[in-house]
Specification:
disordered N terminus; Jelly Rolls; five-stranded antiparallel β-sheet; mainly beta
Length: about 200
């Protein structure tokens, strides 16, 4: 009766005294927000980046840190709208197989900014696929990812970077937003999970 639904409660506790729960209701193929403009309860903060919410945007402009997603993903449709200043260093890691150790040896890394990572520019799958030039600095950008049956599709600002690229090394895991300097604003993160959770 309820096979097509899953309820996930995300709790964040402060000083072991308060706990705020955010319930996310999913149905097969349903879309849900990983950032709702109000809080970061879908993520765990790592490092000293100064993540804060301004005008319903998630912003960082100091320090170095990561946002580790609380949900593991195998197959998904993922979209993020973000703004980065020129010279910023921002990446998205997906299928993080070892959440305690996040790098290109434990996850797929997508460069989100104009600063190349070992020669891999914006939209590139670092260490695996080099993207054509795509402008990202000082503007709003839209990244869409799709993972299906060990195949990965990446589209940045309408430019198809990868189309069903075979990606079998890292089968599943949470996502991570990595900030290593500059200025980053995020105004939307959403995902669709095909089939059951």
């Amino acid at each position: 009766m309820f096979a097509s639904m899953a309820i996930i409660a995300v709790c964040t506790c402060a000083l072991a005294r308060t706990c705020a729960a955010q319930a996310i209701l999913l149905s097969d193929g349903g879309s849900f927000k990983l950032f709702n403009g109000q809080d970061t309860s879908a993520w765990t903060q790592i490092g000293n980046a100064n993540w804060q919410i301004r005008r319903e945007e998630l912003v960082a402009n100091q320090g170095v840190g990561m946002l580790l997603g609380r949900f593991p993903f195998a197959e998904f449709d993922f979209q993020i709208d973000y703004w980065v200043a020129q010279g910023s260093q921002v990446s998205l890691f997906i299928h993080c197989t070892t959440p305690g150790v996040i790098n290109r040896d434990t996850a797929y890394q997508v460069n989100l900014s104009d600063v190349p990572i070992d020669g891999y520019g914006a939209g590139s799958l670092v260490g695996a696929l080099m993207a054509p030039p795509v402008a990202t600095a000082n503007q709003w950008n839209h990244l869409a990812l799709k993972s299906r049956q060990d195949k990965l599709t990446i589209v940045l600002n309408g430019t198809v970077i990868a189309d069903k690229l075979i990606a079998q090394r890292f089968p599943s895991g949470p996502m991570v937003i990595s900030f290593a300097g500059g200025e980053l604003s995020i105004k939307g993160i959403s995902a669709i999970i095909p089939g059951r959770w």
